[in-house]
């Protein structure tokens, strides 16, 4: 079990993000002083959920303004920190200009934060939030892998700025992180590679692709059915726990696939049927692949026909044994993740009966 040293402050970048919210909550509840960076300190509405957590927790929350593109922007926030959690990175599947909206912020942000870590003598450990998207690009890629399963040794070679730009941005950002880490000897790098992150948020008004997916399951957008799309899913609270363990487990090294289950879109929706099936138009069947190929890009311009061809009809399998063995993770069941997530949307008025 890891031991949290409360003496030293820690830095969490992208503090108002989905994963960062739960990570900061756990750190504050553990009595840690958290240096939280945000893009704009004047946007107080975004800070209210974290302030509520901090008001009852034994830890201390301090805000700093920083920008992923500005070299030296994280210097003040990182001062005195022993652990740096770099979670800040855009997550969206649709981008008009992938280079400026996804790739540059991910790579340049990682470069600036990790370079600053090397310039800050107190830093001993950097935990980077990467993604399983840096490991594989399309489900069809798994056919070339041993046992058809992704492991920490695998890298995404099929994505590009034109095809799966988000996955490409995560791959390039993580490669940049390892390049910087291997050029110095002051701190160790641990990388967290989650599959699709689902579950309730500390800030219920947050925008994330995960929220779009579950909202569409309940608002009728997927009423006619869903593609037969294999996917890995992990609870956002387990991802936060993985970061915490990665930050404070002395022997933690390298990459960790963080994924609770190998599932499908239909199986995710099925978890909601017992409690919500009567009152919400949840999807109950799989759509034929040719229909998805024909109409999918018209309904969702972010999904191309190449993406549909390379993913629909293929299973997804991820090996999470390293995270269970070394980080001692205990994953929540899919039913808990999906029902807690859906309940939050209902309770906060994001979904109506």
Automatic annotation (TrEMBL):
GO terms for molecular function: oxidoreductase activity, acting on the CH-OH group of donors, NAD or NADP as acceptor. Keywords: Oxidoreductase. Residues 10-246 form the NAD-dependent epimerase/dehydratase domain. InterPro entries: Epimerase_deHydtase, NAD(P)-bd_dom_sf, NAD(P)_dehydrat-like. The keyword Oxidoreductase applies. This is Dihydroflavonol-4-reductase.
């Amino acid at each position: 079990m890891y031991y949290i040293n409360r003496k030293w402050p820690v830095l969490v970048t992208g503090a108002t993000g989905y994963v960062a919210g739960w990570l900061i909550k756990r750190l504050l509840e553990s009595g840690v002083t958290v240096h939280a960076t945000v893009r704009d300190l004047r946007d107080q509405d975004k800070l209210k959920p974290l302030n509520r957590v901090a008001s009852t927790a034994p830890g201390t929350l301090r805000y700093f303004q920083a920008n992923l593109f500005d070299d030296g922007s994280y210097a003040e926030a990182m001062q005195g920190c022993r652990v740096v959690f770099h979670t800040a990175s855009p997550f969206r599947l649709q981008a008009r200009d992938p280079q400026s909206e996804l790739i540059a912020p991910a790579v340049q942000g990682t470069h600036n934060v990790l370079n600053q870590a090397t310039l800050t003598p107190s830093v001993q450990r950097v935990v980077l939030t990467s993604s399983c998207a840096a490991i594989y690009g399309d489900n069809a890629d798994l056919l070339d892998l041993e046992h058809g399963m992704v492991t920490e040794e695998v890298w995404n070679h099929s994505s590009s700025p034109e095809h799966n730009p988000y996955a490409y941005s995560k791959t390039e950002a993580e490669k940049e992180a390892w390049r910087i880490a291997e050029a110095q000897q002051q701190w160790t790098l641990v990388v967290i590679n989650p599959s699709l992150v689902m579950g309730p948020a500390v800030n219920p008004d947050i925008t994330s692709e995960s929220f779009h997916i579950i909202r569409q399951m309940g608002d009728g957008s997927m009423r006619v059915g869903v593609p037969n799309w294999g996917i890995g899913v992990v609870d956002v609270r387990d991802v936060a726990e993985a970061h915490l363990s990665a930050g404070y487990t002395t022997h933690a090294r390298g990459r960790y696939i963080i994924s609770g289950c190998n599932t499908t879109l239909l199986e995710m929706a099925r978890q909601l049927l017992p409690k919500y099936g009567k009152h919400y138009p949840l999807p109950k069947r799989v759509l034929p692949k040719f229909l998805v190929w024909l109409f999918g890009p018209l309904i969702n311009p972010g999904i191309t026909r190449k993406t549909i061809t390379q993913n629909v009809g293929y299973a997804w399998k991820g090996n999470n044994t390293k995270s269970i063995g070394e980080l001692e993770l205990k994953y929540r069941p899919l039913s808990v993740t999906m029902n807690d997530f859906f309940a939050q949307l209902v309770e906060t008025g994001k979904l109506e009966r």
